[in-house]
Amino acid sequence: MKYDLTTDDGLRRAWRYICQSANVEDPQKDIVQKFDKVRRDDFLNEDYQRLLWEENEICSIRRPPRVKVDEIIQDNRLMTWFYKKYKDIKKKESSQRINDLCDFVEKLYTKLKPYTTKNERPVCRTYRTMAALFPDNFTRCASTTELKRLAKHMGFDENINNVSQHVKIHFKILDRLKKVLDKPKNLNEVIQRMIWSRDLPDATGGIHLPSLKTILPLVNRKGYFPDDLCLKLHLGLWADERRHFAVLTGLSGAGKTLLARAYAEAITEEDPTGENPKRSCIVAVQPGWTDPSYLLGYANPLRNDTFEKTPFLKLLHRATDEPHTPHVAILDEMNLSHPEQYMAPLLSAMETGGSIEIHGRGETFDGVRNHIPYPNNLVLIGTVNMDETTHGLVDKLLDRAFTLEFWKVDVDMWRGWEKNELPAKKKENIKEILNALMKALEPARLHFGYRVIEEIVAFLKHYLQDYPEWPLEDALDAVVYAKVLPKLRGDDSKRISDALKECKKVLVDEDKEEKRGFILSNSANKVEELIKDLEASGSARFWR
């Protein structure tokens, strides 16, 4: 639907249409009613612009760019579209939705092109582009202070002392944004631009956090993690002022707990597995936790004057006493029990900002307060495996958590290859077999993680040291049978059937293009059994 924006009537009808289609809130509808009585020339007046955006300045630089009404309308449409997509991506973000993310960025770039015309002043052009990328605070992003912060964030450490430098840095930022948005596969940059908020440093509430540039290398010293994974974890944890809660799910042995430990160490400067850590702890969740006492402690029924303090409760006390220092609790395998049961007081306080109820025995009992204010410096990271021994996660918990999935495993990037003493030729043979198995099994999510790779290599290392006359082919057959095949299972589907058939091809070395010279006969026979079971009964299990 097109409107003649050069006329007062066309302008009013366009504004009404945009507000109705965007389903704006009542305060904005009041603005629409006021606007009905205003002529076009009045609308372009700066005073009236301030009336429309009374809670925010149009722009805080000394000579603000004129905001034309047709651009305001276009901005409003773009803001509404961007907000909706932005919220959807925050809810749905996972490795399964990379194509959706790329598609979104391509559409965003297309929508931004009309806003960055050659005739527009650099300040206006950046202002318009940043308005689309950072809608929460778009009215302030053209100020010198904001420009400096943004430039520093994007790696431009130049001084902005005069008009020429001001214009120069605007062009640099625009050029950088264009490159980022023009290459949607560059996910590190894209995700950072999408999720980064001007208020992110303030959302930490004065908590002293290392910069991302400091955190990333510290995390990657512990193991191989793609930068975008750590980036998403950090931004997801600190996007809210109070809810610093993430859930890591995915393939067993892919590094979920290792990432949680590495991140905790990076921001607290202590190893949560070390001796007597003060600002972090690992809670190994057990089956049968049905109430908060397993996490928050309990009054000892045999000693009436004693309260059993858990490591998590002690961490809560320390977090309350040191409000400007991050404290991290890792809930390992958190869904072995129902998290919504043993975490109930935490989830409630996290949402409301109220206190966590510890006990009902007076104001204090054995030095423990009956209530503890929910600490805004508390970080919760839970790891989750989904199998027959665990419980699903309810919406109440997922609504409060930032979820990350771990399914991608890169055999060649496993850090252990650099440290082990395997002969070079044998190392390459092992890599080839593992890469081929990974490629065959990954589409059905039957592949293996870094823990399995580590144990396979350790087995082969000991075999070479203690019994080198055993053929490598037989040793590989034994360890693949023991470490990879036991998790092969599934019901009748093309995906499972194809994965098993491709796995067998690898084991019998049927690939004419990639001959490895190894036949793992015992493993191949077992996979053949699974294929027959799947065809005969519609189900295949290693364990019968």
Task: Walk me through what this model shows.
By secondary structure, this protein is an alpha/beta fold. It folds into four domains: 1-49, no CATH class; 56-198, no CATH class; 212-406, P-loop containing nucleotide triphosphate hydrolases (Rossmann fold); 411-541, no CATH class. The chain is 51% helix and 9% strand. It is built from 25 helices and 13 strands. The strands form five sheets. A five-stranded parallel sheet has the order 2-5-10-1-11, with helices on both faces. Strand 3 and strand 4 form a beta hairpin. The radius of gyration is 29 Å and the shape is globular. Residues 1-6, 17-36, 52-76, 93-98, 112-122, 131-142 and 183-203 have low confidence and may be disordered.
From the 3D coordinates, which CATH architecture of the largest domain would you assign?
A: 3-Layer(aba) Sandwich
* Strand portion: 5-15%
Give the strand tally.
13
Instruction: Give the rounded overall mean pLDDT.
Output: 74
Q: Please report the number of helical segments.
A: 25
Task: Tell the overall outline.
Answer: globular
CATH fourth-tier homologous superfamily of the largest domain: P-loop containing nucleotide triphosphate hydrolases
- CATH topology description of the largest domain: Rossmann fold
Number of structural units classed as domains: 4
Helix content: 40-55%
Distance from first to last alpha carbon: 64 Å
Text of the CATH class of the largest domain: Alpha Beta
Task: Set down the secondary structure blueprint.
Layout: H1 8-22, H2 26-36, H3 40-43, H4 46-52, H5 69-92, H6 98-112, H7 122-133, H8 144-153, H9 163-182, H10 187-195, H11 200-203, H12 212-220, H13 227-238, E1 245-250, H14 256-268, E2 280-284, H15 293-296, E3 298-299, E4 307-308, H16 311-321, E5 327-332, H17 339-342, H18 344-352, E6 355-357, E7 364-365, E8 368-369, E9 371-373, E10 378-384, H19 395-398, E11 402-406, H20 416-419, H21 424-441, H22 450-466, H23 472-483, E12 489-491, H24 494-508, H25 521-537, E13 539-541
Parallel strand pairs: 1-10, 1-11, 2-5, 5-10
Antiparallel strand pairs: 3-4, 6-9, 7-8, 12-13
Helix pairs in contact: 1-2, 1-5, 5-6, 5-7, 7-9, 8-9, 10-13, 12-13, 12-14, 21-24, 22-23, 23-25, 24-25
